[in-house]
Design a protein that fits this description.
With 416 residues, the protein is α/β, with parallel strands linked by helices. Helices cover 35% and strands 16% of the residues. The protein has two domains: 213 residues, Response regulator (Rossmann fold), CATH 3.40.50; 131 residues, Response regulator (Rossmann fold). It contains twelve helices and 13 strands. The strands form two sheets. Strands 8-7-9-10-11-12-13 form a seven-stranded mixed sheet, with helices on both faces. Strands 2-3-1-4-5-6 form a six-stranded mixed sheet, sandwiched between helices. Helix 2 crosses helix 10, helix 2 packs across helix 11 and helix 5 runs parallel beside helix 6. The protein starts with 17 loop residues before the first helix and ends in a 5-residue tail after the last strand.
Length: 416
């Protein structure tokens, strides 16, 4: 789906009139949280505006586009049904203002400055460096930065980030899930690690290493990093291939690099089993173009149903999701990236938060955000749920390990 830097879909809004802005901000104090019953920016008796800063252009535009589309789809259907009855008794429709940051922290910071007095809360945006770029400002300004799509644990630590909360499982949790499965194997394994040289990659590696600590059957035989701005990791793959590792733990977030890595390893005759993060393991957009079925196994983790998987073809949640995505987000294809599903589930969770809000303030919103417990959002896999009550954990902290089957993923108990 082609998108411009600022979207206007069924639920998006390009600009707010001066009258609406005055109504939304007139009672607020210095653009702050709206304490003591004062109405915060971005909310009226009839509507609430959510902001998003996310990559809508550049190499991460595919998943970034999905972070908007899924939320548009869910809220579009809600608006069509008449809106959401908030806990204060007012029924409001949800408007979305999405800005492109191209996965650039500086652009994300600029977008935050634009959104902080127009949007009630900023949500859903993809990227660890981009969300980190304005986390401290959001904390100082008391602007909610909630359900953002980064697994950096700092967003879920109330002492560090009282106005923030992550959505997806923390990166160490994903890495640990694969490490725990590998440690249970009855076979000996040599592991090569390739990781993105930032909080994203380091988080995955930390979780993996903690999980395999003390396992006599697992040996890390090589470990190299790359920069997110690198155009190629061919040299790293060649060096790691020389270790004869039978497992490649690849903590990589850049879609084109994952595809080229899959192709490169094959071209030099190295065919280990792979582990990939949940956000860069799309069957149709990454694994199939990269020829992943040439490897003995490609593993990842998940917490949402995959519409492209034949086993979910008749699933009612999936049918409703695909219909809403086409109708309200102008997204006619089956999503290649899980972020479309994640942001749809996020929308359902926000609806629960709004229903719990007793006051139209950011402060009360954050109280409601941190009160969701064991919520089963649409599209969630069995064994996973939304829980925002545990300090230090994101909204979703549970995942299941899956193996690529050539078209989609199958849940597995051990390495095969």
């Amino acid at each position: 789906m082609k998108m411009t830097p600022t979207r206007r879909g069924a639920t998006s809004v390009i600009a707010l009139s001066a009258a609406v802005l005055l109504a939304a901000t007139g009672c607020a104090r210095d653009g702050g949280g709206g304490r003591g019953g004062e109405t915060s920016p971005g909310i009226t008796d009839d509507s609430i505006t959510l902001g998003i800063t996310t990559p809508l252009s550049g190499p991460t535009a595919g998943p970034g586009t999905c972070t908007v589309a899924g939320l548009e789809a869910y809220m579009g259907a809600v608006n069509e049904a008449g809106g959401i009855e908030f806990g204060d008794g007012k029924t409001r429709t949800v408007e979305i203002k999405a800005l492109d940051d191209a996965y650039d922290p500086q652009k994300a910071s600029s977008n935050y400055q634009t959104l902080k007095n127009e949007a009630f809360a900023i949500t859903s945006g993809l990227g660890t460096p981009t969300n980190l770029a304005w986390r401290e400002a959001a904390t100082a300004d008391e602007v909610p930065q909630v359900f953002v799509m980064t697994g950096d644990p700092i967003f879920s630590q109330q002492s560090e980030s009282p106005w923030s909360l992550g959505w997806v499982p923390a990166y160490p949790n994903e890495g640990a899930a694969f490490g725990e499965m590998l440690a249970k194997s009855s076979e000996d394994h040599k592991v090569a690690i390739l990781f993105q040289n930032d909080d994203f990659g380091e988080g995955y590696v930390k979780g993996f290493k903690e999980a395999i600590k003390g396992s006599e059957n697992i040996e890390v035989v090589g470990e190299l990093s790359y920069e997110a701005t690198d155009a190629s990791v061919d040299a790293q793959l060649t060096e790691l291939a020389a270790t004869d590792a039978d497992i490649l733990f690849n903590a990589m977030s850049i879609t084109p690099l994952v595809i080229s890595s899959l192709e490169r390893a094959q071209s030099i005759g190295w065919k280990p089993s792979w582990f990939l993060p949940s956000n860069t393991s799309s069957p149709s957009a990454i694994l199939q173009p990269g020829g992943a079925d040439a490897y003995p196994g490609v593993y990842s983790v998940a917490f949402s149903k995959a519409p492209a998987s034949p086993k979910f073809a008749d699933d009612e949640d999936v049918k409703t999701f695909l219909s809403d995505l086409k109708t309200y987000a102008d997204y006619p294809e089956v999503p290649a990236f899980p972020h479309c599903m994640w942001s749809y589930m996020l929308g359902a969770t926000l609806e629960q938060v709004f229903k719990d809000m007793q006051e139209p303030t950011r402060e009360n919103f954050m109280e409601a955000v941190r009160s969701i417990e064991d919520f089963k959002a649409p599209l969630m896999l069995d064994g996973t749920s939304v829980n925002t009550t545990v300090d230090g954990e994101p909204a979703v902290s549970s995942v299941v390990v899956q193996k690529f089957n050539g078209k989609g993923f199958d849940t597995v108990e051990g390495i095969e």
